[in-house]
Design brief:
342 residues; 4-stranded antiparallel β-sheet; mainly beta
């Protein structure tokens, strides 16, 4: 059985209502608001250290969003993906919907149950997390609370779904991240099961790898998944404070990272993305920063700190990179999307 460490001074509860998902936080240090699956092991003092170590090395471009359930508002944005035209898709975790924007943040459309109601019907969600696009522009959504993947057209038309609750092939127990390779194969991280599952472009199960642990190829609650142009798979392994790299058949290649606040160290990394040059962007969630690495894990640069200003973050989550190298970050508890150009 997996061990979960929860200090007594922090209580985080997710409540599913008939309107919106609500997160209730009790006795929480003002400098730290954990995401639902983040072990609350980083205190206010540690967050302050991280805030001092990160410096801005990317140009802030714009930001959009605020707390709420109206068009363009968010209730804890989680995943983010960008298509070839620059349109941005955001999984609005607490509002149980997907929202689409232009690259400048102009609202385009949304889908999910009206009034942010949870549901299990086609096109409805319970706390959606990861999002990813294929080469045809179809959007895959990790419908975390329903333990399934749903596929939509780029305008939100429902196409298909797969998955159910369980430990069998093609089943999930709290899936989180998702990525699609150039062949249309789909990779899904299962947070509770501690595995990566691979499916083909017809959604048929191919293989899986991983188990709970700290060894090579093992995971401590995997979250983000990304794939590069030659189909290497990168996994954010947050409880082990590292990134692991695999072949597209799950063969372990390398890893980097350790617990800390220095360059190349992490405090609960969640999101991950790869640009067209193979550079890897990691959302270092509890250090409130983005770190950039080569595809072999060599540290390049970083930006961000804790706060509400431009270029600052409050427990950032998902990340995506467009064809022009712009980086989009889901700024979880600031309820906004921030756009940068490194």
């Amino acid at each position: 059985m997996k061990k979960i460490l929860i200090p007594i001074f922090i209580l985080s509860v997710i409540i599913i209502t008939n309107s919106c998902t609500q997160r209730i936080l009790t006795s929480l240090p003002a400098t730290l608001t954990p995401t639902p699956n983040m072990p609350a092991t980083v205190g206010a003092q540690e967050t302050a250290v991280a805030r001092e170590t990160a410096t801005m090395t990317a140009m802030f471009v714009t930001a959009w969003g605020s707390a709420g359930n109206g068009n363009g508002q968010f209730n804890d944005p989680a995943g983010v993906a960008v298509n070839s035209s620059g349109d941005v898709y955001v999984s609005d975790f607490g509002n149980n919907r997907i929202q689409e924007f232009s690259s400048a943040g102009a609202y385009i459309t949304q889908w999910g149950a009206p009034g942010c109601v949870t549901g299990s019907a086609d096109g409805q969600f319970i706390t959606p997390r990861g999002v990813a696009l294929d080469s045809s522009g179809n959007l895959y959504v990790v419908d975390t609370g329903n333990d399934r993947i749903q596929e939509f057209s780029n305008t939100g038309t429902y196409i298909t779904q797969w998955g159910s609750s369980g430990y069998g092939n093609g089943q999930f127990i709290y899936p989180e991240g998702i990525a699609v390779d150039s062949s249309g194969n789909i990779y899904v991280s299962d947070f509770t099961y501690n595995i990566i599952q691979k499916f083909d472009n017809t959604d048929a199960y191919i293989l899986k790898w991983g188990s709970f642990g700290t060894g090579n190829g093992q995971f401590g609650d995997p979250v983000g998944v990304a794939v590069d142009s030659i189909e290497n798979v990168y996994v954010a392994d947050p409880n082990n404070n590292r990134i692991q790299k695999f072949s597209n058949t799950g063969i372990y290649i390398t890893q980097w990272g350790s617990s800390g606040y220095g360059n190349g160290q992490f405090q609960y990394p969640e999101g991950i993305a790869v640009d067209s040059s193979g550079n890897v962007y990691v959302v270092d969630t509890s250090n409130n920063r983005i770190q950039k690495f080569s595809n072999t894990g060599t540290y390049i640069t970083q930006w961000g700190s804790a706060g509400t200003g431009n270029g600052q973050f409050c427990q950032p989550n998902g990340v995506a990179v467009d064809s022009n190298g712009n980086v989009y970050v889901a700024d979880w508890c600031n309820n906004r999307i921030e756009k940068f150009h490194p």
